[in-house]
Amino acid sequence: MFQTEVASEKEFSDWSELYAWVADEEKSTSRVPIQGLLKNGAKFQEDKYFGGSEYKLAFTEEGLKALCYKLGFPLLALEMTKESELASRILNDLLGQDNAKAQLSNSEFVINEKGSDSSHGKVCGIVSSSYVGYSNNSFVRDIENVISENDLSSAGKLTLKEAYSINTRLHLRLTSMHISGTVSGRGGISEDKTEIGLEFCNSMVGDAAVSIDYFLHRLVCANGLVLPAGRNGARVIHSGKAKNFLTRLNKAFGDVLAGMGEKATYVKELSDIEFSPQRLSELDLSKMIFDIIPKSKSTVIDKHRNVFNDFIFRKLSPEDKLKREELAIGYLPLCFAGELSKAVFNSKYRDNASMFDLINVFTEHAKEKQPAERLEIQKRSGQLAEWVVNNKKKFN
Q1: How many CB atoms lie within 10 A of CB 381?
Q2: How many angstroms separate the Cα of 295 from the Cα of each of 200, 278, 321, 360?
Q3: Known InterPro entries for this protein (predicted)?
């Protein structure tokens, strides 16, 4: 099995630390033509490195995945090898084939030395030699300039809530001083307020365009949620001249900014939709729900085996399958709700549990995870929230 190195993950809550990180990251990240390394005799060795006697390159999982994709070889097959050095021999054999050489003739490794052992750097990804590089240092400065050039009278000042750097992918989250959403119920002593903002994302390894999405931050439990803004044209591809790129980035920001007020209504709309396991099952949303937290469905079934035994050892009718999914969805909050979301979910000040409460079960659970997994859960939770709001009539 080929051993990969953990991609650097860093969390930020203030600008000064973020500025220092992206400036250092820019200095420690480089691109190297793969063909040049091969011509100099570079090979895979020890099921861990690529290089020669004088230098070694390790791989993050994303870097190895990118190489396997270029070679047309499944990463899973490489991960399943057990014999010592077998993974290295397979990769070296693939690199020696003409079609692989052709595939890699115009490709470059993106190498990051930040946080690496002094003897080697880490391959974080692969880009073409014509790829227009865009560092996170430039990205942060450009976002600041774009914000300063736009009219923020409706949103108010955008303040840094949090930021994450994962394998050179930067997630920058800013929230509005003016726009927020509120959940109401029968009473209570404080306001359940959700801040509305934006998430800006950039990748230095060519695996994604610059993106701008909506970010929701619930104050009562500090949960984060990312709502897609793709229909507003919030993807800006790294290409063309710098001036044209900034013009497109500015337009995308303006388009998404105009929709922030609408996202504030999502909080109320989600809180107005009852959490009904039966209806969610009937709408065939079980897969989307259980995909948010990997292996969550098997966890629910294992913890409540006595409830699900009757559905395991016999052929199920369509009605039985719906009932099984309904039960699984109903038990999900019992298995995954954290202290805060469980208290809100069962609050006497709520008329009933809502879809907003279910979403917050996921997003509070996400806070227990490392940044990469946390952000994925928040993103998938946002996709569910978006679907529910866009199809709210189906819940009536």
Answers
A1: 27
A2: 29, 21, 19, 18
A3: DUF932
At residue 12, φ and ψ (nearest 5 deg) are -130, 150
Q: Which of 217, 257, 230, 268 is nearest to 389 (CA)?
A: 268
DSSP one-letter code for 229: -
What does the angle CA 306 – CA 307 – CA 308 come to, to the nearest 5 degrees? Answer: 95
On whether the CB atoms of residues 34 and 108 are closer than 8 A, the answer is yes
Same domain, 147 and 222: yes
Q: Which domain holds residue 53?
A: 29-128
Letter for the amino acid at 292?
I
Q: Is residue 324 in a domain?
A: yes
Q: At 6, is the secondary structure helix, strand, or coil?
A: coil
User: Got the DSSP string for 282-325?
Assistant: HTT-HHHHHHSSTTHHHHHHHHTHHHHGGGTSSPPPHHHHHHHH
Instruction: Calculate ∠ Cα 195-268-270, nearest 5°.
Output: 105
Which of 233, 263, 293 corresponds to the end of one domain? 263
Compute φ and ψ for 344, nearest 5 degrees: -70, -40
CA 358 – CA 338 distance, rounded (Å): 11
pTM score of the predicted model = 0.88
Q: Are 168 and 204 in contact (CB under 8 A)?
A: yes
Tallying the residues shown for the chain, one arrives at 396
97-143 per-position pLDDT tens digit: 999 999 999 999 999 876 555 557 899 999 998 888 889 999 999 99
Q: CA-to-CA distance for 235 and 353, rounded, in angstroms?
A: 35
Tokens of 131: 């790829």
